[in-house]
Write a structure and sequence with these properties.
CATH class of the largest domain: Alpha Beta
Radius of gyration: 21 Å
Strand content: 15-25%
Number of domains: 2
Bound molecules: N-(iminomethyl)-L-glutamic acid, fe (iii) ion
Distance between the termini: 27 Å
CATH topology of the largest domain: TIM Barrel
CATH superfamily of the largest domain: Metal-dependent hydrolases
Helix content: 25-40%
């Protein structure tokens, strides 16, 4: 290598690049991206490279005909859990509703029982196997919620598992404390007492360095606006950003509560109204759409996409992977569903799993390709965002780069 060569570690050439900084539908053809260490060192037209690619970098990948995007980000999952709920799936097929199952002691509580019964290693093994599916689909950052413990020991076990996954795999994991997921059986007669317990768990787990964000489930079968606000007030005092499961099954003003606390995101948002959308726009709260949960529950009220567009609310798309309402291991499937069920454009969906998903996690170093950004990059065997969203089960990933390292 000559002494004037830039000395990059990796150089991708001849790619079709969706950088996600100059509009989601802008594709740069014949582009090159250079990586040094964990960051992007340069990007621009392949023709603008000074010197030959081989002289410029230790390794060169020719991405002829490949779409290259920021690595995908799944900003809403519950992928650490024990057991499964296929029996409830059958009950729902026979006409029993999600709410009825929850009220009868099933639903989230049945996964709480199974998760409490798992050892640390069992829980980690289950999650580790699942997480391989995200890597296979070009995901480099994943949010993981607790909320199937609902007691201190099991919430801690879940959050430690999430951290361990991040340490042991090339993925970045973001840990969200969801103690306010449902009222566990042993607190059924004292819901407000449980809210106090959530607050005390939050303080302990935060002190142990296990919490990045705080979430809650605001719904008639879960927590009220007042109860959520009590938890969020403490989260904010601790300096932790919040996000909210809002307006999923009914319109309860969840979007406004999220906006009042400057939430990073309000998620589900099927029943969010005009006031809610306006409040989210003012607070910069991202609307995270979860079409696989909508599909699984066979819902019929889609989120108010036009309101979000009109008011400039950023839209993200995520899996909501969980054993009850979204038994999926595939973000690409959720991307297809966001188009088919919610009529998002493929460009909106791509923004929803890259730059807007990063915003929903409060991360500004990824979700876009620019000099200095983290080198989390997905290379695809397809060449347009539409084709990425169009196939089902196609395994379109060619390569995944996480923090500058080739992970797939
Ligand atoms: O995002 N809505 C609440 N939480 C999950 C469902 C969890 C479950 O049923 O286990 C959701 O849909
Ligand atoms: Fe969820």
């Amino acid at each position: 290598m000559n002494s004037n060569a830039p000395g990059w570690d990796l150089l991708i050439i001849n790619a079709r690049v969706a950088a996600m900084i100059d509009g989601a539908d802008k594709i740069h053809s014949d582009y090159a991206i250079a990586i040094r260490g964990a960051s992007i060192a340069w990007l621009g037209p392949t023709n603008d490279l000074v010197g030959s690619p081989e002289e410029s970098a230790d390794k060169v990948i020719n991405a002829q005909d490949q779409l290259v995007t920021p690595a995908l980000i799944d900003c809403h999952t519950h992928l650490v859990f024990g057991g499964h709920r296929a029996a409830e799936f059958e009950q729902r097929l026979n006409g029993v509703s999600y709410e009825q199952i929850a009220k009868a002691g099933g639903g989230i509580q049945s996964t709480v029982n199974a998760t409490r019964a798992c050892s640390d290693n069992e829980l980690a093994d289950l999650a580790e196997k699942r997480i391989a599916c995200w890597l296979d689909e070009g995901v480099a950052t994943i949010e993981i919620k607790s909320g199937y413990g609902l007691d201190l020991a099991t919430e801690r076990k879940m959050l430690r598992t999430a951290r361990r996954l991040g340490e042991r795999s090339p993925l970045t994991t973001v840990s969200t404390f969801l103690g306010a997921h449902t009222i566990p059986a042993e607190w059924k007669d004292n819901p407000d007492g449980y809210v106090e317990e959530v607050i005390s768990m939050l303080k302990v787990l935060h002190a142990e360095g296990l919490v990045d964000h705080v979430d809650a489930y605001m719904e008639s079968i879960a927590f009220s606006a007042e109860q959520v606000s009590r938890v969020f007030k403490v989260a904010k005092e601790l300096g932790l950003p919040v996000k909210l499961h809002a307006d999923q099954l009914s319109s309860g003003g969840g979007a406004q509560v999220a906006a009042n606390f400057d939430a990073l995101s309000a998620d589900h948002v099927e029943y969010t109204d005009q006031q809610g959308a306006e409040a989210m726009a003012r607070s910069g709260t991202v609307a995270v759409l979860l079409p696989a949960a909508y599909y699984t529950l066979r819902e019929s009220t889609p989120p108010p996409i036009d309101l979000f567009r009109k008011h400039g609310v950023p839209i993200a798309v995520a899996t909501d992977a969980n054993p009850g309402t979204s038994p999926t291991l595939s973000l690409l499937t959720s991307m297809n569903m966001a188009c088919t069920l919610f009529k998002l454009t493929p460009a909106e969906v791509l923004a929803g799993v890259t730059c807007h998903a990063a915003a929903a996690l409060g991360l500004d170093d990824r979700g876009h390709l620019s000099i200095g950004a983290r080198a989390d990059i997905a290379m695809w065997k397809v060449n347009t965002p539409a084709e990425l969203c169009y196939w089902l089960g196609a395994r379109p990933l060619k390569h995944l780069i996480c923090g500058g390292e080739l992970a797939r």
